Amino acid sequence: MSFNRKDLLGLEYLEKQEIQTIIETAKPFKSLFTRSIKKAPALVGKTVVNLFYEPSTRTRTSFEFAAKRLSADVVSIATATSSVVKGESLIDTGKTFEAMKADIIIIRHSLAGAPEILAKNLNASIINAGDGFHEHPTQGLLDLFTILDKKKKVEGLKILLVGDILHSRVAKSNIWALTKMGAKVRVAGPPTLIPKHITDLGVEVFYDLDKAIKNVDVVNILRIQMERQQENLFPSVHEYVELYQVTEDRLATAKPDVLVMHPGPMNRGIEISSQVADSSNAVINEQVTNGIAVRMAVLYLLVAARNKQGKKNGNIN
Questions:
Q1: Topology, domain 11-136+291-306
Q2: What is d(CA 221, CA 266) in angstroms, rounded to the nearest whole number?
Q3: Taking the model in full, what pTM does it have?
Q4: pLDDT single digits (tens) 240-284
Q5: Within this chain, domains 11-136+291-306 and 137-287 share the same CATH topology
Q6: Each residue's pLDDT tens digit, 129-162
Q7: How are strands ordered across the β-sheet holding 259-261?
């Protein structure tokens, strides 16, 4: 299996085979975690830049771990203290890092399409770490990896995404990955938090969580993003809890071996009860571990593709 892309901008753009390549590449990297020395020399001499225009702990740190475990040099930029606050454009910022010989730039941005703008204007490889409400491809990949690790398959599984689908880039990336792999995807949430035409992506829509959760194999619970709720899209948190919180009683109607997932950070007591979050069905911490392996795979494959292209063009780097 091969992966020949310069960038990872979204799972919408990947073929099924490319997704499988990333997942298969991540498996040996996860086994690296059990060794006393948790590093490999695959990215020695390469420079990775974390460029985050939005707050992040899990994703940014996960990429840092991934790059360092592959022996890359890592630079993390806090845009609040950079030239961005002085009005520097996104492209100029990217070109500055490229002039410093950055090989990979990982970007999170509030505007959908920002990673694609960088990718079109830079030679460095670009990884989308979340752009607006568009996509969060490595989260979609690590969720897929976790399901495969536990269930050994995805095709035919009933997988429910519940919560704020409208504002969730995680939901979009999950939908693209899971449908391409043959899963039967359901989404559930208040009508105001379900995008119009979402059924065009091949998912089944439910507004009643009690109906949606019956007999599912996986429940992926999305965070209610209070910072994005500027339009009062549901009457109150209390009402949301009553209608859409995943509780033990609701989970009891799913498959007995149902997986409970959450991209984090969790709002305990809002979208998920503490009992469910701490249950034996929950694989939330394993998602975090798997995220490092998947991001290692993405970094490795992008560098390998660049090296392959460089050799083809007669440039050995």
A1: Rossmann fold (3.40.50)
A2: 9
A3: 0.94
A4: 999 999 999 999 999 999 999 999 999 999 999 999 999 999 999
A5: yes
A6: 999 999 999 999 999 999 999 999 999 999 999 9
A7: 204-206, 184-188, 158-162, 218-221, 259-261
Contact 59, 139 (CB under 8 A): yes
Length of the chain: 317
Q: Are 275 and 247 in contact (CB under 8 A)?
A: yes
Q: Using CA atoms, how far apart are residues 299 and 67, in angstroms rounded to an integer?
A: 7
Give me the residue spans of the domains in the chain.
11-136+291-306, 137-287
- C-alpha triplet 73, 314, 100: angle, nearest 5°: 30
Range 93-97 average pLDDT: 95
Spatial strand order of the sheet with 47-52 comes to 73-78, 47-52, 104-109, 125-131
Q: Measuring CA to CA, which residue among 129, 72, 69, 71 is closest to residue 102?
A: 72
Task: Supply 144's token pair.
Answer: 């897929």
Residue 229 CB contacts under 8 Å (≥ 6 apart), including other chains: 167
Helices (H), 153-247: 169-180, 209-212, 237-244
Distance CA 132, CA 10 (A): 12
- Specify the pLDDT at position 231: 62
Q: How far apart are CA 280 and CA 91, in angstroms?
A: 46
Q: In the CATH hierarchy, which fold is given to the domain comprising 137-287?
A: Rossmann fold (3.40.50)
What tokens were used for 233?
Answer: 């899209």
d(CA 241, CA 287): 24
* pLDDT of 317: 46
Averaged pLDDT of the chain: 93
User: What single string gives the DSSP state of each residue in 15-64?
Assistant: -HHHHHHHHHHHHHHHHGGGSSS----TTTT-EEEEEESS--SHHHHHHH
Distance (Å) of CA 126 to CA 50, 60, 103, 120, 130: 10, 14, 9, 9, 12
